[in-house]
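Q: I have two molecules that I believe assemble together. Could you output structure tokens for the complex as a whole instead of separate predictions?
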Amino acid sequence: MKSRSHITFASILLIVFITGSLAYAAPVRKKLAVEVGRIITIAGKDIKNGVILIEDGTIKAVGTDVEIPWDAFVIEAKDKVVMPGFVMAHTSSGLDRANENMPEVPFISTFDSIDPISTFFEDSLRDGVVAMLVLPGNNTLLGGTGTIVKPYGRTVEAMLIKRYAGLKISLLPSQSTSRMGHMQRFRRYVSDLKDYLEEYEQKKADAKEDKKPFDEEIDVTKQSMVDLLNKKLTAFVYCDRAADVPKAIEIQKTNELNTVLVLGPDCYKAAGLIAKSKLPVVLDSQLIVWETNEKTNEEEMKVVPMIFHKAGVKFAFQTDSSQYGRRYLWYQAAIAVKHGMKREEALKSITLYPAQFIGVDNRLGSIETGKEATMIFLTGDPLDAQSWVDQVMIAGEIVYEKDKDERLKKLLEPPLVIQEPKDTD
Amino acid sequence: MRIYVILLTLLLLVSAFVAPVRAEVTAIKAGKILTISGEPITDGVILIENGKIAEIGTGIEIPEDAAVIDAGKSVVMPGLVDASAAAPVRGDLNEQSSEITPTFRISEALDPQSKVLKRVVQTGVTTLFVSPGRQNVIGGLGVVVKPTGKIPQQMIVKDEAALTVVMDMDPTQGNRIPRGQAPTTFYFRRPGTRMAIIWMLRKSFFDARQQADSEQTEDPNLAILSEVLKDKIPIHVNARRAIVIRAALKVADEYGLKLILQECTEGYKVAGQLAERKIPVVLGPFYYYPGNMGQYREGRKVNWNNAGILAEAGVKVALSSGEQSGAIDILTAATFAVRHGMDRDEALKAITITPAEILGVADRVGSLEKGKDADIVILSGDPLNVTTRVEKVILNGKTVYQ
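A: Yes, here they are, computed for all two components at once.
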């Protein structure tokens, strides 16, 4: 009897194992059709009871009247809401260390520092993020270049979307430097760089004149800054306080840089200035700032996204993985909607706009024909705290399923024993 | 001429005295009223008289002279109760001269002009428990206040509401020798181990019991502790990890103390015991991972559904802001508790009636019932939705935020 039950158990295990391995061994399906209850396309109006047709990881068609080919594998998600995955335009999480000690290190790259097993990436995927620009932290003047990754994969190479993207400039003076010295250091670096380039071009011209071969390459430690000046890279300029904003704008104007402003919570005071400069903005994760009105002595709640929204600034949200609520991009958008921002605009600020800022909007950010089949399946409205990310699809492949998320189960389920043995003393 | 002046003054005086006598009635009409104590009321009316709820229900006739607040389709619920709020106090909350300071009252340090109060009102909180700092083994006496009034006395709902005790490692904080000084200084007198913390606590109650037996009450510290031993004042114990919670239960058993557990990050591990002993818990602040916590990272195993598991086991659970101002408000805490698995009704109770019961003020606040204080929050929609706004806060019948 006992041995029989063992055999039954073993055979069940075997069946489970075989079916399990089959399911996982299945190759990426060539043709997919997803039947969805509601599609939030971001590109246009929401579609009810629509179909998304996917071929080789690319969206071929979206709509209600899409014919499903006979050879397509059908995914039924009629009770789900599907929308493009969230995009983070700026983060310094998931890094071994975010800041280099030296102030001018534009040649280093977060690519070398990204830790694929960091819980940050696991959490990001669970929270519906499909792409993020990982940049150095805010404590280094010329912090280095960034990397665009998806939060999925065991190595940085597997996670990679773009190896070389964005250069971090921080206007927050580090350690013992003053703001004066900090800015001067930046100006001097740029002027030295311009001198160097001039010299380099001169050498090149001289060699051409002398008809000698010219094989001197640009100094690797300066390459990224040269690319910045040539607009091959975008500057992500961190402004700690509102007073840093005019400096950031000055840097952008004098050097004609492609710029995205990364703001601290205090920078809402410079919203008008930013609106005039028409620069895109990544907001701080802290969206509510309290201020004392000196006349009335009342505490006033400043809703940062609303101030920028009213000023006409295009922005993307940021998260803080350690804070309740703020950790989620959808929560940030919901806070803005709570205080009066248009829903569509708020949703764009966590999908399409950040994708534009980091230059991946040709692939990500909306559900449209021709874009990558990267989307999230939600159990309800994205701005409702009771909705969960049920599945995440990246380029036509389901890479996350809530049902199989063992870590999440452990974080939510009670321990096996909640009644402990009594003390016997 | 003079007579007119006198007459006029008299008239003014009389009218000034007569006016308050006539009760002012305010009526709130709302699409949905969450009473918490009972079933929700649709299309109901609340009548407020003298700062109290005079009538609540459907089909109530609104007096002609009543000021009417038409909340339209908004949701009306009782003012929220934060059982562990940031203290509206200027200066430090932790007395450094001793670890055992039961006689210290936070009520004596209240600042009615505090920014904290003005902020907290805007999040819908109308009653809060304020405690001395949590760096002493016995910190002192906490007070239940309302964020209104010009002098501290007007704010107080219940003084000596609980005695603050800490069994976590926080009392060891700051225990270091200043550079270049002898280890005999002021900074090196704090307990350094959990053993010492628990011993100090035990000793205090031991002394109090001894003195009570000998009927000499010379030491005011021990007098307060005697009150605690007589079960007149509950103790609000900060305990995060399961081992600390167990230690707290043990000490409580030894001295017959009435416990309220605070923070309780690992409470879910001992949910059964807490339910059996009917020990209420006040949760908060909330963390995703121990790495986000402070110095000691206590409560190494975080369960996001701590509140849900405790409530399911039958423990009285209150959700609080965890003495943090500017972090998430308690309405959001409840929203996330539901996301993580807590029952909806339980979560709403956990920010209203349950903390009121735990603090011993449920006869006045925590639900919308006839005779209770008119502390009312008007919300733009479902309370457990992030996009819902606090539209109006009424405190003691008066609109304090709009």
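A: One point stands out. The first strand of chain A starts at residue 31 and ends at 39.
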